[in-house]
Amino acid sequence: MPRQLVEVIGRDGHIIESHVVELEHEECIDAEFEEVALVLTERGGKVREAEHIHLRARCVR
Questions:
Q1: Residue 7: which of 36, 37, 31 has the closest Cα?
Q2: CA nearest 2: which of 45, 33, 39?
């Protein structure tokens, strides 16, 4: 199972959270890991719902 460290970044450019995301498929692309990290952050409640549209994520290499 591929695993990737993903940082979720807020509107101001600061890292809000980091997640280690593990997916089942071997041929995953970065965008799939990033999408999971964004969902985890949105569901976690640390960020107001109005700010969700400003979140972005990036895989850490």
A1: 37
A2: 33
The two structure tokens encoding residue 40: 């985890």
What is the token pair recorded at 6?
């993903």
Give CA torsion, residues 32, 15, 45, 51, to 10 deg: -90
What one-character DSSP code corresponds to residue 28?
-
Predicted model pTM: 0.91
Determine which of 21-25, 27-31, 44-48 has the lowest per-residue pLDDT on average. 44-48
Can you tell me the distance from the alpha carbon of 46 to that of 44, in angstroms, rounded to the nearest whole number? 6
Q: Residue 46's pLDDT is what?
A: 87
Q: Looking at residues 41-51, what average pLDDT do you find?
A: 92
Which pair of tokens denotes residue 32? 């799939």
